[in-house]
Amino acid sequence: MRLFTPQAMREADAKAVGLGYPSLLLMEAAGRAAARAVLERFAGRRVAVLCGKGNNGGDGLAAARHLALAGAEVRVFTALEHAGDALHMRQALRAHGLEAEPLERWQPRPGEVVLDALFGTGLSRGLEGFWAELVGRVNAAACPVVAIDLPSGLPFEPHVRATLTLALAGLKREHLFHPARAACGEVLLAGIGMPARALERPDLPELLTPRAMAALLPGRPGDAHKGSVGRVLVAGGHAAYTGAPVLAALGAHRAGAGLVTVAYPAELRLNLPLESVRHPLESWSAGALAGVRAEAAAVGMGAGPLAHAAAEAVLALRLPTVLDADALRPELVQAYVREGVPAVITPHPGEAARLLGGEAGAVAAEPLEAARALAERFPKVVVVLKGGPTVLAWKAGEGLEFAVNTTGNPAMASGGTGDVLAGVVAALMAAGLPPWDAARLGVYLHGLSGDRRGRVGLLAHELADALPEARAALERGEVRAFWAWGSPPGSARG
Ligand SMILES: NC(=O)C1=CN([C@@H]2O[C@H](COP(=O)(O)OP(=O)(O)OC[C@H]3O[C@@H](n4cnc5c(N)ncnc54)[C@H](O)[C@@H]3O)[C@@H](O)[C@H]2O)[C@@H](O)CC1
Ligand SMILES: Nc1ncnc2c1ncn2[C@@H]1O[C@H](COP(=O)(O)OP(=O)(O)O)[C@@H](O)[C@H]1O
Ligand SMILES: [K+]
């Protein structure tokens, strides 16, 4: 499944029509789905449908007919300039004896649900004048708002703030990325019968889905032993940060590592899991790690000023490595590129800005572009740009792979959750997954654990402890994407 842009969705629409699929069927399905969403969530409530002049308005006109046919009390307000499919929908509404009023006449009524079908993906600039004022009135009315495709006005200001948004045919950037995502409220996806072939777009970012991620889970053969399912080396720690390597070790254990060895400065007292192997060091000298048995490593967590030496000592082992926290320095990542050692980097926006030489705010505002820039700066290195949502990028050869995570929530914005992730990704690489697969699955599972425990006040070690159950649920096929209709509690949230 891919993350669409308005332009890519217009192309999908044209491709469907090129395949012989009538566009009116798509609009009819969109209207039917919107009516269903309103009826399921707001049974028995009166509905005011506000329809714009484009195809989003056409979806609204179709929805109004289906709402009326289902027995709902509906008022329809519409722009008058319809053409094409939307005009057919207005005629269909009229054929059922339903007359629309001009939009200017809409006044909110207490308790009524507003179905926002003013604008969808068709805007190229912000709303002004009458339309901006109308959006202001929708937001000021104390009514639940169901938005068709997008809350009207997005991605610009002003825009409608919806309770529920019904994404049509595919998810768009606004359904996942802040600040637009906050305006969408809950997001549901309606397939609207778009032929799968019309949606095939390998050039667009992959959205991590439960099914695709379950397929990546490394097996656990009956004759597994602790040396066969992946051994992880965690290297980090410094006087001020003794928790970080411990949390990375915990993440690796909980993600299924057979053995976890933690290398750290000998003067530290680390409160390591009983199960971890201790490897205290007098210094991070070359050869300090000789003899450590591992198939993958994670370095940098809490390493402070010792990160450079620690990363170089780990590089000498030539293991697939997660570079995190203090090891996220351009010269260290370049050393992995130069040596051809597989690496995953896991920066948050501040660390990404340090790697790119920019501002954290600019990275957070345009995470897709920042992840792309990092992947191009460090070829063959898998980039995990953490945030809500986390974006992954990887320049394997000529092309660029791109993925966007669909799990995780703001409760995870708490110290140490990133350290857990480093351990998780290292454990999955140690289990034999290629770095791109380990990074995608690791990020997905980490967010899924957060969603299953997702309360403000979540501690990083609790997130790690929730990993086995999250993994088991994914393996059993019990996880549903946040956009799936009827998602049970504990499903992945975007
Ligand atoms: N797969 C698809 O692409 C499908 C799309 N459909 C619907 O079609 C929508 C897109 O339809 P359209 O491309 O007609 O676009 P919209 O309906 O979002 O809006 C286009 C209209 O808004 C006007 N407009 C643009 N910018 C404006 C501004 N700043 N101020 C005031 N008016 C402005 C345009 O002149 C045009 O009349 C989707 O969001 C979806 O709801 C569905 O009907 C079914 C299938
Ligand atoms: N608002 C949010 N929505 C989803 N995930 C979030 C959000 N805030 C933080 N996270 C996740 O929490 C983790 C935080 O990692 P990081 O910033 O490195 O923390 P630390 O350095 O304290 O370990 C990342 O995996 C990130 O994706
Ligand atoms: K809309």
UniProtKB/TrEMBL annotation:
<keyword id="KW-0520">NAD</keyword>
<dbReference type="GO" id="GO:0052855">
    <property type="term" value="F:ADP-dependent NAD(P)H-hydrate dehydratase activity"/>
</dbReference>
<protein>
    <recommendedName>
        <fullName>Bifunctional NAD(P)H-hydrate repair enzyme</fullName>
        <ecNumber>4.2.1.136</ecNumber>
        <ecNumber>5.1.99.6</ecNumber>
    </recommendedName>
</protein>
<feature type="domain" description="YjeF C-terminal">
    <location>
        <begin position="209"/>
        <end position="474"/>
    </location>
</feature>
<feature type="domain" description="YjeF N-terminal">
    <location>
        <begin position="9"/>
        <end position="200"/>
    </location>
</feature>
<dbReference type="Pfam" id="PF01256">
    <property type="entry name" value="Carb_kinase"/>
</dbReference>
<feature type="binding site">
    <location>
        <position position="418"/>
    </location>
    <ligand>
        <name>AMP</name>
    </ligand>
</feature>
<keyword id="KW-0067">ATP-binding</keyword>
<dbReference type="Pfam" id="PF03853">
    <property type="entry name" value="YjeF_N"/>
</dbReference>
<feature type="binding site">
    <location>
        <begin position="55"/>
        <end position="59"/>
    </location>
    <ligand>
        <name>(6S)-NADPHX</name>
    </ligand>
</feature>
<dbReference type="InterPro" id="IPR029056">
    <property type="entry name" value="Ribokinase-like"/>
</dbReference>
<feature type="binding site">
    <location>
        <position position="149"/>
    </location>
    <ligand>
        <name>(6S)-NADPHX</name>
    </ligand>
</feature>
<dbReference type="InterPro" id="IPR004443">
    <property type="entry name" value="YjeF_N_dom"/>
</dbReference>
<comment type="subunit">
    <text>Homotetramer.</text>
</comment>
<feature type="binding site">
    <location>
        <position position="348"/>
    </location>
    <ligand>
        <name>(6S)-NADPHX</name>
    </ligand>
</feature>
<dbReference type="GO" id="GO:0110051">
    <property type="term" value="P:metabolite repair"/>
</dbReference>
<dbReference type="InterPro" id="IPR030677">
    <property type="entry name" value="Nnr"/>
</dbReference>
<keyword id="KW-0511">Multifunctional enzyme</keyword>
<keyword id="KW-0547">Nucleotide-binding</keyword>
<keyword id="KW-0456">Lyase</keyword>
<feature type="binding site">
    <location>
        <position position="116"/>
    </location>
    <ligand>
        <name>K(+)</name>
    </ligand>
</feature>
<keyword id="KW-0521">NADP</keyword>
<dbReference type="GO" id="GO:0052856">
    <property type="term" value="F:NAD(P)HX epimerase activity"/>
</dbReference>
<feature type="binding site">
    <location>
        <begin position="120"/>
        <end position="126"/>
    </location>
    <ligand>
        <name>(6S)-NADPHX</name>
    </ligand>
</feature>
<comment type="similarity">
    <text>Belongs to the NnrE/AIBP family.</text>
</comment>
<comment type="function">
    <text>Catalyzes the epimerization of the S- and R-forms of NAD(P)HX, a damaged form of NAD(P)H that is a result of enzymatic or heat-dependent hydration. This is a prerequisite for the S-specific NAD(P)H-hydrate dehydratase to allow the repair of both epimers of NAD(P)HX.</text>
</comment>
<feature type="binding site">
    <location>
        <position position="56"/>
    </location>
    <ligand>
        <name>K(+)</name>
    </ligand>
</feature>
<feature type="binding site">
    <location>
        <begin position="386"/>
        <end position="390"/>
    </location>
    <ligand>
        <name>AMP</name>
    </ligand>
</feature>
<keyword id="KW-0630">Potassium</keyword>
<comment type="function">
    <text>Catalyzes the dehydration of the S-form of NAD(P)HX at the expense of ADP, which is converted to AMP. Together with NAD(P)HX epimerase, which catalyzes the epimerization of the S- and R-forms, the enzyme allows the repair of both epimers of NAD(P)HX, a damaged form of NAD(P)H that is a result of enzymatic or heat-dependent hydration.</text>
</comment>
<keyword id="KW-0479">Metal-binding</keyword>
<dbReference type="GO" id="GO:0046496">
    <property type="term" value="P:nicotinamide nucleotide metabolic process"/>
</dbReference>
<dbReference type="InterPro" id="IPR017953">
    <property type="entry name" value="Carbohydrate_kinase_pred_CS"/>
</dbReference>
<feature type="binding site">
    <location>
        <position position="152"/>
    </location>
    <ligand>
        <name>K(+)</name>
    </ligand>
</feature>
<feature type="binding site">
    <location>
        <position position="244"/>
    </location>
    <ligand>
        <name>(6S)-NADPHX</name>
    </ligand>
</feature>
<dbReference type="InterPro" id="IPR000631">
    <property type="entry name" value="CARKD"/>
</dbReference>
<feature type="binding site">
    <location>
        <position position="419"/>
    </location>
    <ligand>
        <name>(6S)-NADPHX</name>
    </ligand>
</feature>
<dbReference type="InterPro" id="IPR036652">
    <property type="entry name" value="YjeF_N_dom_sf"/>
</dbReference>
<comment type="similarity">
    <text>Belongs to the NnrD/CARKD family.</text>
</comment>
<feature type="binding site">
    <location>
        <position position="300"/>
    </location>
    <ligand>
        <name>(6S)-NADPHX</name>
    </ligand>
</feature>
<keyword id="KW-0413">Isomerase</keyword>
<dbReference type="GO" id="GO:0005524">
    <property type="term" value="F:ATP binding"/>
</dbReference>
